[in-house]
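Lab meeting tomorrow. Please check the following:
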Amino acid sequence: MKTKHIVLVCLVLAASITWYFIFFDQDYQPTTDFDETESHLVVWSRNHKNTYINFIKNLAEDDHVSLYVPKSTPKDSLFYELKSVGVNMDNVHMETVANDNIWIRDFGPVFLMNKSGKTKSLSFKYYEYQENLFPYEYQAIVKERLRASRVVGIGGARELNGKGLAILVEKHEQDANPNLSKDEIAKELKKKLGVKKIIWLKSGLPQDEEQAITPLLDTVYTNGAGHHIDSFCRFVSPNTVLLAQVNSYEINSHPILKMANERLEENYTILKNALDQDGKPLNIIRVPVAPLLFEKEIDVDTHRTFLRSNSYLNFIITKHKVIVPSYGHYMKTEDAISRDLEVQHIFKSIFPNKNIVMLDCIDLNRNGGGFHCIAINKPKKKKKVA
């Protein structure tokens, strides 16, 4: 009789575990930029101090911020500095870390959630030539294990709609994973992220080309991130994509704009002819490219002109705001000012219930990034579905 009871208990336990994995621990999807946010993860940068203060101040008005402070910056002094300029420090939690790489979007955790509200996190490999300690530090802080992937996966280089659709850029993936085919990359994303379908775009903006020995055009050099999708194409809902566009009147005004137009229209054709994970066409909204920004740099005896990787689509969504890069205040040209206003109106039409905040991030653009590159939104946990 005792043996029968033990067998019965084991069968019940096995059935429970099976039910758990079939109905409760399955169908994970990456959370998105437009999901409800528990906290924005940001790594402090003293080299971009003014931009960070304005950015964090706007985030912390209504949202929570997890601010990771490199050891080189005293945490207490930063706390009082932020508080003195009006940052709502009740909404900011600070942690000291060894990591001082600010581009957390690229190397930080990917958050996944299933329909039952259960969450888990994933860490992709970072660039082979750069050490990435943050996943280990993050695990220790939150006391949660991050699952790992064997491929290089850069957060700013992929767009996910949270329903099984991913948009990737061929040129970036070829550079990031030179020894893997598109099929091998797709297989890994399907396994680790639950991706059901991938739309492959061809290349990113010329403004976002990585720095090279040779110029992009004549004597113009770039120092961008390298075909990152978050500079020209973004999901704002599971079925709606924003795609940058060169205005028709300026296509022939500069060779770089002509190059950008060719790349963007090739990508537009791909998106227009693509279907989402459910076989439905995408809703595509075009947003003007940012005005070309050229700056001269002097390195010893060398004078170079750099084209900055600026973009209106490197934005962040918060509870009550959308924080969008602006260029009119810095460039002080009629074109940049009017373009800022045009973009602000477009974003307001997309997010009618949110405040559209236009902020300068030129110093981030100089290093190949923007607001979306320096923050990750950790999702708010959903209540379990009955």
